[in-house]
Structure formats: structure tokens, C-alpha cells
From TrEMBL:
Keyword 4Fe-4S: no
Keywords from the named record: ATP-binding, Nucleotide-binding
Gene Ontology cellular component annotations, sorted alphabetically: endoplasmic reticulum chaperone complex
InterPro entries: ATPase_NBD, Heat_shock_70_CS, Hsp_70_fam
Membership in a protein family: Belongs to the heat shock protein 70 family.
Native species: Thrips palmi (Melon thrips)
Gene: LOC117648383
Name of this chain's protein: Chaperone protein DnaK-like
Keyword Nucleotide-binding: yes
GO molecular function terms listed in the Swiss-Prot or TrEMBL record: ATP binding; ATP-dependent protein folding chaperone
């Protein structure tokens, strides 16, 4: 963990130096850093520590989905209910937010990591490995061939977002010849169907939970997609089926998070309420339970925060507990 923190600190230091050179300043000590919504308390604290190592003692964290909502909220009139779906390379998340007059209130956020671009890549690279084994009778084991295969697939994936099928053609040392393979978009969708289903299920679940805390009659006004893999046509089509006519296409999936973080740093928008998804493993006796909850963080308490009291169930069937104390 210390090594990861040091690497992150080095990266943030480079960013700080670049910003200082660009702005012709030498005194940047504050920053707004967007992190995945599924980051736990320890991961968030690690980012704060890395920022301090980089000379940014006043760093503020914001969820990536919240940052995207802030970019959407800028210069937008009237209250809106927005679902933000993040499908980035390292993983995805979902948040339901209320946008009004440049402010954002996070109603609900997904507390776990959803499939992202890496999962789609791994699934298709495994498919190509199997195809090579069946066609050529050889395993792809050397590092060079694996990197060539990964790089080739990533380029093919980008093309599949624009055309219905793609031709892979590259020399592969593992088989000592040129690899030629056709991948239709339909095959990609079939191989990754469970990943798509997982994302759609979490959108539905998070939205259902959010509606329970909203006034009756509330409905979604817009869906904002962020992250490179949100460009996958099948995913966009399925989300459009789930929430017809709600896709907002004006924001760039690659720039929305950075834009929102910059606006927050400039004070052009505000976060009225953030929600951090928590997954806590609680051990009782020889059994470990997974207790899921959501912690609301008001504007003046930025993540990471430490709860004052902890409560845990001693059995999965427990739905109430006696409490002793004074009012």
C-alpha cells in the first residue's frame, strides 16, 4: 500500500508541476481529485496521503460520477434528476443525483465496482486465446505475443463501436505467422452478455433504491454516460431501452469528470450532499458477513470521513437490535 501511495504521489506531483508551469505559479497547494465511487475509506485516505506527498495538503475528493453530474449542472436551469453511469477502464459505478442551479445532491450511489473496460478486454482476449488454440494448436504464453494480442484487440474494440465487424490481422510470435480473425459486433456482445447484464441490473437497483427516498412521482430526466466503454453501442442501446429517450449526449464521456472537478475547484458549482457506498466485512465467531450501507456526507465533510459509531448485525437474519442509552 505504501508503494502504491508513493507512485500516486509521484504522479500527482508531476500534475502539480505541470499546472504550476502552465499557470506560471509556484504556490499550488489545493486540488480537487476525482476518484471512483466504489473506492472505500482506506483507498480514499490513500489518495489524500498521496496528495500530501505531492505537496497538495488541501486536496478535496469527489466521486467521479458526482464530478460528471457537476459538469452537467453547470449553467443549467431548473431541478433535474440525473442518472450518471460510469463505465471506465478500471471499473464502473452508478449514481443518482439531483441537479438544481449549479448544485448537486447525490441521492444514491452504487457501493460496489461494476464491470469496466478491463473486463471486456479480458473476456475477448480469452476468446482469442481459445480461437488460436483451436485453429493453430498452440498456446499464447510468451509476454510479447500477449501484449500484441492485447494491443490488437484494443484497437479492434474501438473500431467495433463504429462498424459492425472488424478484421484482426497481425503477426503473432506464438504461432510464428500472421493471425487473421474476423470479430463481428454480435460475437462481442454475446461473449460479454453477462457483463452488460450486470451493469444494467445495477442501474435498475440503484435507481429503485433512490426512488424510495424521493418524492412520489419523481422521474429521471437525463442519463449521463462517462468512461470510454460507455461508447459501446450495445450498452448505450440497452440503457436507452431501460430509460427511453433519456440519454444525454452533449457531454464528452472522456472529459466530463475532469470538467466537473475543474468547475468544483473554481467554485462555479457546488456539492450539497455526497453519498459514499460502503461494503463492510464483519466477523462474528467463525463467520464473516458482508454488511452493505450508504453513508451520507454533508457539504462541509468531504470524504474520507470517519463515522463516530459502528453497528453490525450478529446474524444475517437479524433485523432489529435493542439499544440502551439516554435520549
Amino acid at each position: 500500500m505504501t508503494q502504491i501511495r508513493s507512485i500516486a504521489g509521484t504522479l500527482l506531483l508531476d500534475v502539480r508541476k505541470f499546472a504550476e508551469a502552465h499557470l506560471n505559479r509556484r504556490d499550488i497547494r489545493k486540488a480537487v481529485i476525482a476518484v471512483p465511487s466504489y473506492f472505500n475509506i482506506a483507498q480514499r485516505q490513500g489518495i489524500i496521503d498521496a496528495a500530501r506527498l505531492a505537496g497538495l495538503p488541501e486536496a478535496r475528493l469527489v466521486n467521479e460520477t458526482t464530478a460528471a453530474a457537476l459538469a452537467f449542472a453547470h449553467d443549467r436551469e431548473g431541478p433535474k434528476l440525473v442518472v450518471v453511469v460510469d463505465v471506465s477502464g478500471g471499473g464502473g459505478s452508478v449514481s443518482v443525483v439531483k441537479v438544481d442551479g449549479g448544485g448537486v445532491q447525490v441521492v444514491r450511489t452504487c457501493g460496489k465496482r461494476l464491470p469496466g473496460g478491463d473486463e471486456f478486454d479480458i473476456r475477448m482476449i480469452n476468446y482469442l486465446w481459445t480461437a488460436i488454440r483451436e485453429e493453430h494448436g498452440k498456446e499464447v504464453e510468451d509476454h510479447r505475443s500477449m501484449e500484441i494480442l492485447r494491443s490488437t484487440w484494443e484497437k479492434a474494440k474501438q473500431k467495433l463501436s463504429r462498424i459492425p465487424h472488424v478484421e484482426i490481422s497481425t503477426f503473432l510470435p506464438a504461432i510464428d505467422k500472421e493471425l487473421k480473425h474476423t470479430i463481428p459486433r454480435s460475437l462481442f456482445e454475446a461473449e460479454c452478455s453477462d457483463l452488460f447484464d450486470s451493469i444494467l441490473h445495477e442501474i435498475s437497483r440503484t435507481l429503485k433504491n433512490a426512488m424510495g427516498s424521493l418524492p412520489e412521482g419523481s422521474c429521471v430526466d437525463h442519463v449521463v454516460l462517462i468512461g470510454g466503454s460507455s461508447r459501446i453501442p450495445h450498452l448505450r442501446a440497452e440503457i436507452d431501452k431501460l430509460l427511453p429517450g433519456k440519454l444525454h449526449k452533449a457531454l464528452s464521456p472522456d472529459e466530463a469528470v475532469a470538467r466537473g472537478a475543474a468547475l468544483l475547484a473554481a467554485g462555479a458549482v457546488r456539492v450539497d450532499k455526497e453519498v459514499v457506498g460502503l461494503e463492510t466485512h464483519v466477523t462474528y465467531g467463525d463467520t464473516t458477513f458482508l454488511c452493505k450501507d450508504h453513508m451520507q456526507v454533508e457539504e462541509w465533510h468531504q470524504p474520507p470521513v470517519k463515522p463516530k459509531e459502528y453497528f453490525a448485525r450478529y446474524a444475517m437474519t437479524q433485523n432489529r437490535s435493542p439499544v440502551e442509552g439516554q435520549k
